[in-house]
Task: inverse folding
């Protein structure tokens, strides 16, 4: 899945005409960004949210795009643990809302 996430981030970035350096500035090195977008690196959840914010995408919108790319329904996938689902919902609704320690731990897993 990591390869799919990176490739989708690249497609969205290019679709918006955003330079790679601007999207990943302060988050990833140039080498990490290249490896991510080519599908060779994984991305921690704690870095995904700032990237999505720079792309003006909510987590739900990104999940829908990823689902479309994968060609499979997320409903068929294993459901998210409740604490992760709650954290993602809160983060999407309130990007600056403080998460609990359990929510931060769930996101980074």
Result:
């Amino acid at each position: 899945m990591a390869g799919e996430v990176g490739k989708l981030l690249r497609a969205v970035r290019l679709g918006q005409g955003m330079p790679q350096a601007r999207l990943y500035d302060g988050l990833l090195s140039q080498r990490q960004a290249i490896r991510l977008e080519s599908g060779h690196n994984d991305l921690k959840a704690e870095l995904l949210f700032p990237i999505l914010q720079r792309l003006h995408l909510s987590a739900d919108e990104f999940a829908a795009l990823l689902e479309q790319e994968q060609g499979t329904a997320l409903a068929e996938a294993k459901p998210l643990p409740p604490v992760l689902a709650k954290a993602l919902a809160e983060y999407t609704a309130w990007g600056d809302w403080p998460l609990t320690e359990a929510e931060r731990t769930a996101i980074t897993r």
Summary: Residues 2-77 form a domain with the 434 Repressor (Amino-terminal Domain) fold (CATH 1.10.260.40). The chain has a mean pLDDT of 80. The chain has two domains: 2-77, 78-109.
